[in-house]
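Incident review: delayed structure delivery

Summary: a single-chain prediction request sat in the queue longer than the usual turnaround. Root cause was a stuck worker, restarted by the on-call engineer. No data loss occurred. The affected request and its eventual output are reproduced below so the record is complete for anyone auditing the incident later.

Affected input:
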Amino acid sequence: MSLEPRSSALAAYNGRGGVQIEGAVIEPPDRRDASVRLRVQAQTVNVSGVPVPTSGIVLVDAPSTASVAYGDLVRVSGRLRAPQAFDRFDYADFLGRQGVFSLMDRVSEVEVVTTGGGSPVVHAVSGLRDRIGALFTSLLPEPHAGILTAVVTGNEQYIAPSTRSAYADSGLSHLLAVSGFNMTLVAGFALAWIRRAQRPLVPVLFGVGALIVYLALVGFAASAARAALMAALVLIGHALRRQSNLVVSLGFAAVVLTALAPRTLFDVGFQLSFAAMLGIAVIQPRLDRAVEPFTLPERPATLSLSVVRMFAAAGTVTISASVLTLPISASVFGTFPAATLLTNLLVVPLQSIILIGGFVLIVVGALPILGTFVASALLVPLAWMTTVAERSACGANKP
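Output delivered after worker restart:
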C-alpha cells in the first residue's frame, strides 16, 4: 500500500478547459522576468458559474504584472492541467510528493480578494530575505549578487534568466535551490569544529543555532527543516564523544523523521540530505586526515594558515557530502554525464565557502570597510562558479 497521495479533489478538473479558482497563496511568490509562480491552496473551483468547495494545491503560472503577496486570498482564472514528465525527469511524481497534482496556465485573471493572511513569522522572514537581497545587490555586481542571494536565502528572483539557464544547462542549478544539502554543509562545518574541540558544547550550540537561523532564512522550507532536524540530532550525538554515535545518530534521526511523516522516506530531498550527512559522517574524517599535513596542525594559527584551514575544511565537507548524493541524482534525474560530474567537482567545494561567507556578509555588510572587504573576497568564488557554469553550458549546447 502506497503512503503517497495519488491525487487531490482539485485534480478532477484537470484538462476540463477554463476554470476559476479561489484560494490562499501559501508561499511567497516566485517572481521571474516573464511570470510569477504562485502556490495556491484551493478552496473553491468554478467551472459553470457556480463555486464548488474543493481542496488541493495548484501551481499558478501568472503574468509578471500580477501584484500578489504571501497570505493573499486570490481568485485566478485559467486552464488546469496535470504535470508531465520531461527530459527523463518525472515532474508529476516530484510535485505529487509535495501534494501538488494541478498546474494552471493560460491565466487570464488574477484578482486579490483579501490581503494580510498567512503566518506573521513567514511574513517577517520574507521581509528579511528581501532586505538581504537588497544588501547583497548594494555590495556586489550582477550576476554575483543574485547568485549569493539564492545560495543564502533560496530566493532566485534576483538571478537573470540567462544566468539561470547557464546553471541549468551545466548541471549546477541545484546549487541555487533551497535544499537540505546546504544544511548538511553548515552541519559539516560544525562537525569539523567538534572534532577539534576539547569541549564540544560550544560548537554544538553554534551549529544548532546556525541551522535554526539558516532554516528561517530559507523560509522554513520542508526539505530544509527535515535536514536541519537530522543534522541537529547528529551534532548532539557526535558531541557525546563516542565515534559510533555519529552514524547511529543519523539513523535515529531518519527513524524519527519517517515515524513523524512516513511520506518523508519517499522524498528525494530527504534522501539527498541523508546521503550527504552520511558522507560527512563516514568520508570526511578520512579526507581530513589526508589533507592534515597541508594544514600544519602543529603550528599556531596565523591569518594565512587559518584561511588555508578554512578552505581545506570547506573542500572536505563539500566533497564528502557530494560523493554519496551523486548516485541518487543519477537515479532520480535519469542521467549524470561525466561532464556534469567534472563541472560539479570544479565548483561544489566552493559552495560552503560562499554560504558561510554570505552569512558573514549579512552581519558585517553595513560596516563600510569590512563589508566591502568581505564582498570583494566573495567575488572570487562567485566569479569562478559562474564562469564554470557559463562555459560548461556553452559546451553542452554545441551540436
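Verification: The mean pLDDT is 78.
Action items: add queue-age alerting; document worker restart procedure.
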